[in-house]
Amino acid sequence: MRVLILGGTTEARLLMALLENRPDITAIFSLAGATKVPVLPNAQTRIGGFGGIDGLKDYLLNHDIQAVIDATHPFAATMSSNAAEACASLGLPLLRLKRPAWVPTAKDQWITVPDLHHAALALGETSRRVFLTTGRKDLTSFQASPQHHYLIRSIDAPEPASLPPSATVVLSRPPYTLASELSLMREHGTDILVTKNAGSESTKAKLDAARALGLPVIMVQRPTLPPVRTADTPQSALQWLEKLAH
Ligand code: NAP
Fold first, then answer.
1. Which of 37, 99, 146, 207 has the highest Cβ tally under 10 A?
2. Which of the listed residues 40, 72, 154, 202 should we mutate to test ligand 1's pocket, taking the one with most ligand atoms within 8 A of CB?
3. Sorting pLDDT into bands at 50, 70 and 90, what band is 34?
4. Cα angle 177-180-182, degrees, rounded to a multiple of 5
C-alpha cells in the first residue's frame, strides 16, 4: 500500500520510523519546506506545497496514493483542511494524527485567546517582558502592541520586517528542559508567556517553568478543523494503516 504522510511534527517523524523496513507499506513523506534545515526520515521525501486542493488531488492520483495520514502541526489548518477535502472528493481513507492539546492544571494562570491578534491585545496596555514562542510566522500581530519587550524564540530567524520594535530573537530547536526554560525566563526577566496550544512534549517545559515562576500564560487555542478520523499517537496511526493494508 502506498501512503502519503503529511509531516512537520515529531509525531510524523516517529510514525515514519515505525514504517521503516515494512515491505507492505510504502510511505512517502511530505514537508512544506517551512524549516530551512528539516530533520528528514530515512524514506522517500518530497518538499513543497502541492498547489492547493486541486494540486493535492493531482499528486494523490499521479502517485497512486491509497491512504493519507495528516500528521501536520495542530495549527497547520490550511493543509489539514485541504487534505480533508481532497481525500473526501477522491474517496481516499484519511487519518489525522494530532497530539492531544495541553490542559491547564489548578496552578496555571491561562488566558485563552482564539488567535495571535487577540494574544497581542491580551498583553494589555502596561509594558511587559513577553516570552513569545508562537513561531516566526505572523509576528506582525505584535507590532500593534509596541509597548512590550518581546523575547522571540524560533527555529529559523523571523523576517526582520515582521518584528515588533523592541525584540530579542533567540534561535533554537526543541526539546527544552525545565532547567533551561527557567534559566532563559529568569535571564530575560520574563513576566508573561505567549504560546500556541501545540500539545508537544518537547516544548511543554515552558509551561512548567511559567507555573513554577507564578507567571501568566496567554494560550492561543487550536483552529477548528473539518471532522475526520483522528489518532493521537504514532502507534495508533500505524495500527490504522495495518488494518487498511490487510
Ligand atoms: P498551513 O498554513 O496549513 O499550510 C500552508 C501551505 O503549506 C499549505 O496550503 C500547503 O501548500 C503547504 N503545506 C503545509 N504542510 C505541508 C506538508 N506537510 N507538505 C506539503 N505542503 C504542505 O501550514 P503552516 O502553518 O504554514 O505549516 C507549514 C508546515 O510547518 C506544516 O508541515 C506544519 O506541520 C509545520 N509546522 C507548523 C507550525 C505552526 O505553528 N503552524 C509549527 C510547527 C510546524 P499547498 O496549498 O500549495 O499544498
1. 207
2. 72
3. confident
4. 105
